[in-house]
From TrEMBL:
Organism encoding this protein: Pedobacter terrae
Domain of life (superkingdom): Bacteria
Gene3D superfamilies reported in the protein's UniProt record: Dihydrodipicolinate Reductase, domain 2, NAD(P)-binding Rossmann-like Domain
Pfam families: GFO_IDH_MocA, GFO_IDH_MocA_C3
All copies of domain GFO/IDH/MocA-like oxidoreductase, residue ranges: 132-258
InterPro entries (alphabetical): Gfo/Idh/MocA-like_OxRdtase_N, Gfo/Idh/MocA_Oxidoreductase, GFO_IDH_MocA-like_dom, NAD(P)-bd_dom_sf
Protein name: Predicted dehydrogenase
Domain Gfo/Idh/MocA-like oxidoreductase N-terminal: 4-124
Gene Ontology MF annotations: nucleotide binding
C-alpha cells in the first residue's frame, strides 16, 4: 500500500475531535468511509467531516474495495467481532482501547491477527504523545536515580468531565464496557506503566461497588511488581466529592521524583531540593501522533506502536485487579 484509506466503524463522539480529523491530516492517510448503525447520524458525520462514503452496516464498510484499513471506535462489546471480521477480510485494524471486554477476548483477537498475518494496533495513544515520551526520556537519563515506587491516583466524582459525553452512558453497563469507568480510564495508565517499566512479575487487586445506583465496581486498587523490581500502586475511585478529585502519577526514585497527570500538560521533576517543570501545548487531536505511527506501520515504514500482545498485558492486569 502507498496510502492508507481508512474506514471508521463507530463514528461517535470520541471520533469527532480526538481521532477522526487526524486521519485526513496525517501524511499518506485519508478517511474515505464511516459507519454507524444510525444511518442518519453516519450521513451527518460524513457531511461535516468531508468523508466520501457512509454506511449503516459494518460488513459493507469492511468489504468496500476503497477501504484498506479499519479503525474500530465502537464500545468495547463490539471490538472483538468487528476486529476479527476485518482481519479475515485482510484489512489491518486500529482498535480503540480498552482492546475489548476482557483478556480472553483480547487473546482471541491477537491470535487471529497472528494466524492470518494481518496487522493489528491498539489505540493506547499516550505512548506517542510528546509529554509521555518526555517522561520515558527522563527515566532513561536516570535523573531520579533507581526507580523505587510508582503511586497513581485517579479520583473522580460520578460522571467525571474526563469522559466523552455520549447519548447513552454505556460506560457504566458492564455488558457493553467490560467494567465501568475503571475499564475506560485505567487502560491509559496501565499501558504507560508497562511501556515504562517492562514485564510484569506479579499483580493483585481489590475491586468493589460502593454506590448503590451502579452495576459496576467504582473503587479499584491495584498493585504490580515488575520484573525489574519497580512496584506500582494504583487507586481508582469514581465516587469522591468534587473537591477531592485527583489525577496524579508520581514516580519515586533514589534521587527524587517525577510527577504528572494523565489528563494534563505538565511534568514536574524534583531532585536534591531542585524542581524543574516541563509544560506541553495541548494537542488538537490527541490521537494524531499515534495515528502517524500506525500509518507508518501499516505502510511498512515503522514498528507496531502498540500490538495486540502489548494491549493484552493491560487487559490481564485489569482482569487481575477486578478478579474477573
Amino acid at each position: 500500500m502507498k496510502e492508507i484509506r481508512w474506514g471508521i466503524i463507530g463514528c461517535g463522539d470520541v471520533t469527532e475531535v480526538k481521532s477522526g480529523p487526524a486521519f485526513h491530516k496525517v501524511n499518506h492517510s485519508r478517511l474515505v468511509a464511516v459507519m454507524r448503525r444510525d444511518g442518519t447520524m453516519a450521513a451527518d458525520y460524513a457531511k461535516r467531516h468531508q468523508v466520501p462514503k457512509w454506511f449503516d452496516d459494518a460488513t459493507q464498510l469492511i468489504n468496500d474495495p476503497e477501504v484498506n484499513a479499519i479503525y474500530i471506535a465502537t464500545p468495547p462489546l463490539q471490538h472483538e467481532a468487528y476486529t476479527i471480521e476485518a482481519l479475515k477480510a485482510g484489512k489491518p485494524v486500529y482498535v480503540e482501547k480498552p482492546m475489548t471486554l476482557d483478556a480472553e477476548a483480547a487473546q482471541r483477537m491477537t491470535d487471529v491477527a497472528n494466524k492470518l498475518n494481518v496487522k493489528l494496533c491498539v489505540a493506547h495513544y499516550r505512548r506517542a504523545q510528546p509529554m509521555f515520551l518526555k517522561v520515558k526520556e527522563l527515566l532513561a537519563t536516570n535523573i531520579i536515580g533507581d526507580i523505587r515506587l510508582v503511586s497513581l491516583k485517579m479520583l473522580q466524582q460520578p460522571n467525571p468531565s474526563l469522559i466523552a459525553k455520549t447519548a447513552s452512558n454505556w460506560r457504566i453497563n458492564p455488558a457493553i464496557s467490560g467494567g465501568g469507568l475503571f475499564h475506560d480510564l485505567a487502560p491509559h495508565q496501565l499501558d504507560l506503566m508497562t511501556y515504562y517499566f517492562g514485564a510484569v512479575k506479579n499483580a493483585i487487586g481489590i475491586a468493589t461497588r460502593q454506590q448503590e445506583n451502579t452495576k459496576v465496581d467504582d473503587l479499584v486498587v491495584g498493585n504490580i511488581l515488575f520484573e525489574n523490581g519497580v512496584v506500582f500502586s494504583g487507586n481508582w475511585c469514581f465516587s469522591v466529592a468534587p473537591q477531592d478529585e485527583a489525577d496524579l502519577c508520581i514516580i519515586y526514585g533514589s534521587k527524587g521524583h517525577i510527577n504528572f497527570p494523565m489528563f494534563g500538560n505538565k511534568i514536574t521533576v524534583t531532585t536534591n531540593q531542585t524542581t524543574d517543570e516541563y509544560t506541553f501545548e495541548p494537542l488538537q487531536h490527541v490521537q494524531q501522533p499515534m495515528i502517524e505511527k500506525v500509518v507508518d506501520y501499516f505502510l511498512n515504514k515503522g514498528q507496531n506502536p502498540c500490538s495486540g500482545e502489548d494491549a493484552l498485558i493491560t487487559m490481564k492486569l485489569m482482569d487481575e485487579f477486578t478478579r474477573k
